[in-house]
Amino acid sequence: QVQLVESGGGLVQPGGSLRLSCAASGSSFSVYTMGWYRQAPGNGRELVARITIDGSTNTSDSVKGRFTISRDNAKNTVYLQMNNLKPEDTAVYYCNARLLLSNYWGKGTLVTVSS
Predict the structure, then answer these.
(1) What mean pLDDT comes out for the span 1-19?
(2) Could you tell me if 68 and 50 are in contact, meaning their C-beta atoms sit under 8 angstroms apart?
(3) Which residues, in sequence order, are CB contacts of 78 under 8 Å at separation 6+?
(4) What is the pLDDT of residues 50-69, one digit of tens each?
């Protein structure tokens, strides 16, 4: 079992930055592929970025060049650095941990990009 707690969301103006954090507990963090997903009102949940156990990353085209995912295995934490935020980035952002058939989710943190 893995428990995930996101933090760092909030209200930011267009062009601003935020860093989301996801703290994991309950199991060996380093063996999980970690990801950030988001869900905007009326939309399905979509992958934002993912980082594997060896540090390889993939990022959705909609945020490429603006968002960066990273992990600190010593702190059991995964981060999402979000720069040059746009109104269309407004969503609830969820942290995900995946290993084989095991799939865990946090409760999400709201990011609102508005002037």
Answers:
(1) 97
(2) no
(3) 21, 22, 24, 34, 36, 51, 69, 70, 71, 72, 95
(4) 999 999 999 999 999 999 99
Residue 28: pLDDT over 90: no
Exposure string (b/e) for 58-95, b if CB count within 10 Å is 16 or more?
ebeeebeeebbbebebeebbbbbebeebeeebbbbbbb
pLDDT above 90 (res 26): no
Question: Which token pair is 65?
Answer: 């060049």
Contacts of 110 (CB under 8 A, 6+ apart): 9, 10, 91, 92, 93
